[in-house]
Design goal:
alpha+beta; single chain; 3 domains; Pdz3 Domain
């Protein structure tokens, strides 16, 4: 009899220890371990207790919520010349897989890709902790890299949950446990735990309740994702067309980005006669004109090899103007007439006396914009073109 009592007492003590381990894992947000320890506790205790069922439901719900989080590989990209990796983040899947800055990604799981937004969309909807195969070009060599995607805890998409059909079975299982808990506790006094489980039920009730409706939602999610990819490709083509305009445009034949400054000066001496040489704080050479007239160079910045990196032309100087914003908007509208009425601008500098706007374009190798120097009763409007560093 004593031996039986001791055995039961020891089993209860070990069961309680398992529950304590489950609570520790839960507090550490290790919900998978929490559920495993709770299952051990239930088995040793011989039945499912309310405290175990509560913690199991909350843990399963926390894991279920993670299915909404999109995936990432830990790198940034642009698609000016293919999908170029611009940065690989430390301790990321991309870093672990051996991806490097300036690698060009050409395939995702044998799918040819040329658009950064399309690639990001494919990564986002990959299941976390699965391996994707990337084909890259590095120094003219074609390589293959296997990358294990990770969960992006800061970004979620309500459609992501439908990309794994196993999530429906997890949803059904979770709802059964919730109903069991609520039914078991309905005769008890309503407490915060009951309210929490009820709130979880309310959220899950918004999801499809049958397999048919689940697959309909999945189809809708896939169509939305495909439409986003199509839209991304359309925007890329539009952006590339704008980039071609920006990169080929020059104020006139006397000044050109990447042209040799000395050769331009020899060919068009009158255009450059009022420029004075100066060295910037970064030891860069540039030339400036203290008192330019309209349509004259204000300044030119040169690369170490003497090529034009940027220039500024005085477009107009209004000595008397009561409506500075009107002149600013007029100048921006004139840029739209050249590059398209649907172009947008971003502000690089904005304060009371100086504003600088550039055309939004992701694919261009150079940028074009307007500079506004605002005086008390006057405004100086200049056009700028420069290489993108």
């Amino acid at each position: 009899m004593l031996c039986l009592f001791y055995t039961t007492y020891a089993q209860d003590a070990i069961a309680d220890l398992k529950f304590e381990e489950a609570e520790i894992a839960f507090n550490n947000k290790d919900y998978g371990t929490t559920i495993a320890k709770l299952n051990e506790f239930d088995k040793m205790y011989g039945s499912v207790t309310s405290k175990s069922l509560y913690l199991n439901i909350v843990s399963q719900y926390k894991l279920f919520e993670q299915f909404y989080n999109v995936s990432r590989i830990g790198a940034s990209f642009n698609d000016k010349k293919g999908i170029i990796i611009t940065e690989v983040f430390p301790n990321s899947p991309a870093s672990s897989a051996g991806l490097l800055k300036n690698d060009i990604i050409t395939k995702f799981n044998e799918i040819k890709i040329s658009n950064a937004d399309e690639f990001i969309e494919l990564i986002k909807f990959s299941t976390a902790n699965t391996v994707v195969k990337l084909q890259i070009v590095r120094n003219d060599n074609i390589l293959e890299k296997n990358v294990t995607v990770e969960m992006n805890k800061e970004l979620r998409d309500d459609n992501k949950i439908y990309y794994d059909d196993a999530n429906f079975d997890k949803l059904v299982n979770l709802k059964k446990k919730i109903n069991s808990y609520l039914n078991a506790m309905k005769t008890e006094e309503i407490d915060d735990k009951f309210r929490e489980i009820y709130n979880i039920k309310t959220k899950l009730d918004l999801l499809p309740l049958s397999k048919n409706s689940w697959f309909e939602a999945k189809q809708k999610a896939e169509i939305e994702s495909a439409n986003r990819i199509i839209k991304a490709k359309e925007l890329q083509e539009k952006d590339k067309a704008l980039a071609a305009k920006i990169d080929s445009w020059e104020w006139n034949e006397k000044i050109k980005i990447n042209a040799n400054y000395q050769e331009l000066k020899e060919d068009f001496p009158e255009f450059y006669k009022n420029l004075k040489k100066q060295i910037s704080n970064e030891n860069k050479v540039y030339y400036y004109n203290k008192k330019p007239n309209n349509n004259e160079l204000m300044n030119v910045s040169l690369s170490a090899s003497g090529k034009v990196e940027s220039y500024m032309i005085l477009k107009e100087f209004y000595k008397q103007t009561s409506d500075k914003n009107k002149e600013l908007n007029k100048a921006l509208e004139e840029l739209k007439e050249v590059f398209g009425n649907d172009i947008t601008f971003y502000e690089e500098i904005h304060n009371e006396t100086y504003k600088r706007y550039f055309i939004n374009c992701k694919s261009s190798l150079s940028k074009i914009g307007l500079s506004f120097i605002i005086y008390q009763d006057a405004i100086n409007i200049s056009i700028i073109k420069s290489m993108i560093e």
